[in-house]
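Posting this for the archive.
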Amino acid sequence: MRIPKWRLTFLASSLVLTLSSMAQAASEIEFDLPAAALEKSLNALADQSHVQILFSSEIAVGKRTPALRGRYTPGDALNKLLGSSGLTVQQQDEHTFIVVPEAAAAPVRSNAPAAPVEISPLMVTGEKINRTLAQTQTSVVVNTAADLREHGDNNLENVFARTPGVYAVAGNENWGIRGVPVSGFDDQGPATLNGAVSVYVDGAQQPNRALTLSPMSMWDVEQVEVLLGPQSTTQGRNSLAGAVVIQTRNPTFEPSLSAQTNVGNYGESGVAVAGGGALIDGLVAGRLAVDYQDGDGYIDNVATHGDANPNRNKNARGKLLILPNDDLDVLLSYARHDSLQGDNSIYRRNGQVQYYKISSNTEAHDALQQNTGSAKVDYRLNDAWTLTSQTTGTQSDYQSLLDFDQGAVLDREVTRTQETHLFSQELRLAHSGETLRGFAGAYYGRTSNAFHDQLIYSGTTVGEVKGYTRIHNKALFGELNWDFASNWTLITGLRYDDERNDTTVRDDLSENADVSKSFDALLPKLGVDYQFMPGQYLGFMVQKGYRGGGVNVRAGGSHAAYDPEYTTNYELSYRGSWLEDSLRARANLYYTDWKDQQVSLLDPTESYFEIYNAAGSSIRGLELFVEQDLSRNLKINAGLAYTDGRYDDFVTPEGDRSGEAFLYAPKYKVSVGGSYRFDGGLIVTSDVVYQEGSPSAYNFDADGNVEHMRRSDDHVLVNLNAEYELIRGLAVSGYVKNLFDKEYVTNNRADILDVGAPRTFGVVLRYDL
């Protein structure tokens, strides 16, 4: 029997926490589910019984289920929950159940072949309205836990490396979206508090140093969403170019345990454990995840005859899920991160790049210790209305030692310390109805940073700058999605953002400063989405982007304030699927108009950096992604990003950059990949990624025109990952990054430059209870 071809938007819960339990899915299980909305109850049942439950989003709206307590098979439990709801259950196979309206059901013959079903859609949550990937207009790349495992992505840099539209340089110290660096084009010195891309982990925004100096482990991560393009209306400050939303695994009431150990070349080794379960049945569940990674790095210091870029990363995360009653969910999280990274740069000698070598008499390093706590509370007022409170707090300590002269002859060093605190409180009221969905919210955020830099010559401090920056940010925001006609959706959003920056700088090399600046902005977005055929969507969106101003605190500068910058983004989107959703495509064509762009420049007469609101720029681009499931064993994918970001009108003290491309921004990035699952339990995944070189520096002639530029290298990288299940629950995997050991420059500065990593490989042994 085939399911009638009325359109299903599937929601799915498929957690395989114990393979041994899967074999017993048809046996009775002890259930203790409170009365709740239908969607929540079905997800909880799937979670506890380790089966897949497929159902349409339309049939779940407005329905609730009674409490379920006792021992049942999954099928019987489903029938108990559905009761007189007008829905019924069809069993697809031993581990898959389909919920359909009774009118759509028909008797199932015991010898009937399994009915074909659509692939459960990915859900995108980063825009604060849950949508399927097909219904999300924003250009977004979603990686689930299964994707991360198949590709051998153990940190965020690995994810970026194969994501078109995102570039990374020098061990993730400089990365960006759509050609815009994570920290923006301005150089804010030691107090980089206004970024161009936001990164959230479990709802907590990460400070800049955690984004550029930490590999950000993917252990125990549930989903990573990379949102390309402005997110200012939804996320507010620091989202001018995009956002990355990371969700780690939440606690469940079923016991779980995962553990792995890994070894690799260049001294790489590590161990990780995660697990949890019910602490108080039906009331409190907990989860704990820890991860430790250590390595020598691949760069040698020829002056000290030691490792130049050793690395050590420790991560721990604890979560508590508390369900006081049927309508209230409380999720508490605490995370600790401790990392130490060496110097990722290498040097050029006699015009030749010395791959994986540096000559320095300083053991340069960056150290980061970070503690983050968050509390999320969801209170369901009724079936349509939910009140959400998200509270986060982060304390981050950063210390670094830099080789100021970048060589082994002189003894000049810079020590840098920073103590950063972030606090935010967001209150959001959400509505989900048949034709109207949306939210309204209020936000308050406080960011502070105490910094202290010292310039040391031969052990003597010859200059220092220290100070304190405090930013208060308040906002009112909201979004409304209205299905105003058949197959048509109107999308509107608005945010009012208000910010105050108070900065104090004490600098014995130039001048002191006490600066207070206030900024505000009204950030609308307006769009329409049209489903012109089943599985085919076309959308158009216009929205404003914004980033507040600040104060230049770099030592030796004038510590002058600079103003906000603004973008207007016009974007056409397409989403399509064919062949029963086995072939899927997404495309976004966009144009971004950038006003008052903040850019940091080296003043050739004063020899220090200043920040200017001098640039008018534009970005034109296309992002295209195609995926196909050729069979139940073989999946292939391809992605392309074309990004053309240029200064339209920008005359600098060095010369005229008008018409020139953005620094570091590659125009083309293409990825092609595939994954094959052999019947014997072996999974092989491969990615081939091409990235075009990009400008690293401009050199001007005597008339102020660009004479030539330094560029990074074009390169093609091939990565492989394979996993084989030895016995039930125990698997061994191996990975190779940069299979053909390609040597390439990623930041082509003068004699100190950055290069991509050489061939790295390793083996992972993993056990899942």
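The chain has a mean pLDDT of 86. The chain has three domains: 10-120, 126-243, 244-768.
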